[in-house]
Amino acid sequence: MSQHLIAPSLLSADFANLGKDISMVNDSEADWFHVDVMDGEFVPNISFGMPVIKAISKHAVKPLDVHLMIVKPERYFEAFRDCGANILSVHLEAVTHLHRAVQQIHSLGMKAGVVLNPHSQVNLLEDIITEVDLVLLMSVNPGFGGQAFIEQTYDRIIRLRNLINAKKSKALIEIDGGVDLVNAPKLINAGANVLVAGNTVFGSDDPKKTIHLLKNVH
Ligand code: DX5
Ligand code: ZN
Q1: pTM
Q2: Structural contact between residues 35 and 55, judged by C-beta atoms closer than 8 angstroms
Q3: Residue 88 β-bridge partners
Q4: Which residues have a beta carbon within 5 Å of ligand 2, which is an ion?
Q5: Ligand 1 in contact with 153 (CB < 6 A)?
Q6: Known catalytic residue: 31?
Q7: Helices 18-27 and 207-215 meet at what angle, rounded to 10?
Q8: Structurally, what CATH architecture does the domain formed by 5-215 represent?
Q9: Is the beta carbon of 199 within 6 A of some atom in ligand 1?
Q10: Is the CB of 8 under 6 A from ligand 1?
Q11: What is the tens place of the pLDDT at every residue in 130-184?
């Protein structure tokens, strides 16, 4: 039985029927809700902010895995905690003081993740890997759902897994972007622990069944 986690990305949900999609995820084999916050500056798209996350958290019975694609994210750590974030991930490329950011997220009682864009080298995490709960590797350029998976990701997972093992870190490896039923088993075999899926889940005819299939790949 596979131990990996599935985090459906609400970016691809039906925003006019969000309650329905949240209930579906609640009732499914999914483990977390993946919540993408975009500011139109760090990434060329704007998604949603605190009021929407607060509304999601009222209905969600699983942890909110909040992925911040915003500049100077530290301005809002407390606000995201207050609207229900359980895991808060910041981009390496968006913060100057990553170590401090991780400490601040922890001191607010949340799990801390660091996100790498596809071009950022995995070994940049060497001196922070024992401090973080999660590393999110972008397998597309952040900003939009439904993009094509970047094949180099497998090699990046293997290098990150080696780094985590060498440093005896407990960090989980999460993959975000273009995850589907074909690449999911390969990602797990390469060493991923958490798979984010937006379009694959919400674009399918039977999202709950798709979550079941993603959860049971091996
Ligand atoms: C992209 C977001 C992803 C996105 C993934 O910037 O971080 O979480 O929702 O969507 P899919 O799975 O459709 O590539
Ligand atoms: Zn994301």
Answers
A1: 0.98
A2: no
A3: 66, 112
A4: 36, 67, 176
A5: no
A6: no
A7: 40
A8: Alpha-Beta Barrel (3.20)
A9: yes
A10: no
A11: 999 999 999 999 999 999 999 999 999 999 999 999 999 999 999 999 999 999 9
